[in-house]
Design brief:
Length: about 500
């Protein structure tokens, strides 16, 4: 008899550990454990979502005649871990073998590899991704630079995604230039997918309220899909109602509009309810049938076949060293307003408020508002990683860490991105309407009323001169800095110092 351990982000019948399951003998073990639930201040919605999806998956397997041993979080067993649950199951069930699909996170894999039970442990490859870890390291080998764009083209070719013979559909690999439109006022943005909590979800919500009431984030209202069937409905709704505009407004931000034309599918993809091929093929079909334009479909597919696979590849290629990377020697602790939203900077307040409400913000809010601020304020990568890992329902270290350490903080020195995504307030003003409702003036460059992003941007270039000046993609930025008068650079430094002093003194900035 095999004891098949299924982890909370492997909720798919097609995972490798379940492919040859023998219903007559094998037992599937799914467990809620304190070690995972408590290692960071997880958003309450994130916990409720994952536990509810796990419980629903267990029921689906049972309905297929499979024996499932499911352990719920117990107040009386506060030390539970995967190891302790597997140990108990071995004692009681006496299996011949443990089978598990490779965990998505480095620490969990190492933990499992260290188990020394008196029976074999078979760790099978995680086939939920398009590109295996070995394929990625093969692709990366010998390259001077790892760039997502070239990787993405190879994935398209390999799976024949949006291809016309040997050429990309529409004659171009990338339609990003058409995908940078702002949205200055509310248009007819469709409502997001909403699933009313059923009995299982309500039980989980009550448990989260009781055990994790002090954690970050709003538990109510809860509206996530929690089964594969529901997640597929959410995918269909996205393709039908939002995909057409996805590309054009991919980078836009709008006050009090958290969902816009994004897919909101990352939670479902990352816990296994959806597979990348589900999303890619459904979107491609929408293009082929004339339902959605190529710039949108290509843009959406690039996020999944390109970015998502690429960041996972980088994670496994570079761990464990990547988790300690701090190329720019950033050192400031995370300001308390990241938890309280108590800041006068409207863009940040808005994005943090939405994070608290939904355990979700879209990519540009993460990258160009919260991320940009973290970069310019030299926040320590450990603090920023911990925050991003806790607050989003889609956050697992394999995807969160490269996005934070590589994409927003440039703490990896350029492994993932060719330049830091640093920007002044002008970018945020161009892509959103946040500045209209802000106490600061985006057009002012210096002084107490100036938008802090404006002087912090130049201060960032000055502070990191030695490390960044030779980056060819920052040549123009440094040329502009060199043309600045001494008075102006002095003002930038003085404003930044005043701002950082206020941060350190916990004044409301
Ligand atoms: C600082 C920072 C932290 C992030 N942390 C996470 C995280 O913990 N988990 C996570 O899934 N994504 C993370 N992302 C990537 C991206 O922001 C989210 O995947 C996206 O916002 C999820 O919303 P959506 O499903 O509506 O995405 P859409 O905009 O609809 O995009 C479609 C899908 O593409 C994938 N995708 C897009 N961009 C990325 C990316 N950069 N990396 C990986 N996948 C991508 C996601 O699966 C997403 O569902 C992070 C980005 C940044 C800048
Ligand atoms: S003025 Fe600056 S701080 Fe205020 S919303 Fe605009 S970019 Fe953000």
């Amino acid at each position: 008899m095999n004891l098949i351990l299924v982890l909370g982000d492997q909720l798919n019948r097609q995972i490798s550990s379940l492919t040859d399951l023998d219903r007559r003998k094998d037992v599937v073990l799914i467990c809620e454990v304190w070690e995972e639930a408590e290692y960071t201040n997880h958003h309450k919605k994130k916990l409720a979502f994952i536990f509810s999806a796990m419980r629903h998956f267990a029921d689906e397997l049972r309905a297929q005649g499979i024996t499932v041993r499911y352990t719920k979080l117990q107040k009386t067993e506060k030390t539970s871990s995967f190891r302790s649950e597997v140990e108990k199951a071995i004692r009681e069930l006496k299996p011949e073998r443990i089978v598990v699909t490779e965990p998505s996170e480095y620490c969990v894999l190492n933990d499992i590899k260290s188990w020394a039970f008196d029976l074999p442990i078979e760790i099978r490859p995680d086939t939920r991704f398009l590109i295996s870890k070995d394929e990625f390291s093969g692709w990366a080998k010998g390259r001077k630079q790892l760039r997502m764009e070239y990787f993405y083209r190879d994935v398209r070719r390999k799976y024949s995604i949006l291809m016309e013979g040997d050429n990309p559909a529409g004659g171009q690999w990338n339609f990003d230039k058409q995908n940078r439109n702002p949205l200055k006022e509310k248009t007819n943005i469709p409502a997001p997918y909403v699933e009313a909590p059923d009995r299982i979800t309500l039980e989980v919500i009550a448990m989260i309220d009781e055990y994790f009431g002090g954690n970050f984030g709003d538990l109510h209202p809860f509206y996530f899909a929690v089964t594969r069937e529901q997640a597929l409905k959410a995918l269909d709704q996205f393709v039908l109602e939002r995909l057409t505009n996805f590309g054009s407004y991919q980078d836009a931000m709008l006050q009090n509009e958290p969902w816009l034309y994004h897919s909101h599918l990352s939670f479902y993809l990352n816990c296994g309810l959806l597979l990348p091929v589900d999303c890619i093929r459904t979107a491609e079909e929408a293009y082929r049938s004339g339902q959605a334009p190529l710039n949108s479909v290509e843009g959406f597919i690039r996020q999944i076949a390109g970015w998502r696979e690429f960041v996972r590849g980088i994670y496994w290629l570079t761990m464990p060293a990547y988790a300690d990377a701090n190329f720019l020697e950033a050192y400031r602790p995370l300001p308390s307003f990241f938890w309280t939203e108590d800041t006068q900077m409207n863009c940040l307040r808005q994005c943090i408020k939405e994070t608290k409400e939904n355990a979700y913000t879209h990519h540009i809010q993460r990258l160009m508002v919260i991320g940009n601020f973290s970069l310019l304020a030299a926040l320590h990568p450990d603090d920023v990683n911990d925050w991003f890992l806790s607050v989003y329902a889609d956050a697992y270290q394999w995807v969160e860490l490269p996005n934070v350490t590589g994409m927003i903080l440039f703490a990896d020195g350029g492994v993932l991105a060719s330049k830091p995504y640093a920007a002044s307030g002008a970018y945020i003003n161009r892509m959103s309407n946040y500045c209209k409702g802000c106490r600061y003036k985006v057009t002012k460059k210096n002084g107490p009323d100036a938008c802090p992003f404006n002087y912090l941007y130049w201060n960032f270039l000055i502070r990191n001169d030695q490390k960044l000046r030779s980056n060819p993609r920052l040549r123009i930025a440094y040329q502009n800095l060199d043309r600045m008068s001494e008075d102006k650079t002095d003002a930038v430094k003085a404003d930044s110092q005043r701002f950082f002093n206020a941060l350190e003194n916990e004044e409301k900035i």
